[in-house]
User: Fold this.
Amino acid sequence: MTYPSPVTSYSRSADQREQGTLDRIAAAPVGRGALPLGKSLSTFVYSLAGLASVTLVSWLAFGARWADPVGVAALSVAMAVCVVCLTALVIALVRTEQQAQGLASILVFALVLLGGNFVFASGTTPTIRRLALFTPNGWALHGFTDLGTGMRGWDAVGAPLLGIAAFSAVVAVVTVVLLRLRRTT
Assistant:
C-alpha cells in the first residue's frame, strides 16, 4: 500500500523540473532544505494515510482486532519513514521518470516478494523466513501478525521496529552518500 510512493514522488519531481517549478522554488527566499523536507513530508503523510486506510478498513470491514493500537501506530509510522528513505534513494539513483518507474518497480517487487506479502513467510522455508528479515515489510508483517494474535507492547513491536529502523538507516546513509557523490561529479 505504501510502496507506490517512490514512483509518484519522482513523477512529481520530474514534472516540477520540466515546468520550472524547482527553479522558482530555488529562487525563493527559503532554505535549501525546504524542498526536500516538503517532499519527504508529503511522502510520509501519503504513506501513513495509506496504512491508516488499510488498518481502518480491516477493522470496519473484516472485524480485525489489534491487541495494541499504539503498536500498530508505531509500526505504521516506522514504515512511512522507511518509504521516505526508499523514495529518496530512488530519486538519488535515477535521472528520468522512466528510470524511476523501472527502478521503483523492481525495488517494490523485490521487497514485496522477499518480505512475505505474496506468500505468508512463516509458511515457507527457513531460508525465505530469514530473507524476510532483510526487508522492512517482512518486519512489519511480523509485528502486525503478533499484534493481531494478541501480543502487546514491546514484545510484539520491539524487534520489528528495530529491524525497520536498521533498514531505513542503511538506505538513508546510502542515499546521502549517493547525493554527495552526485554533487561532486
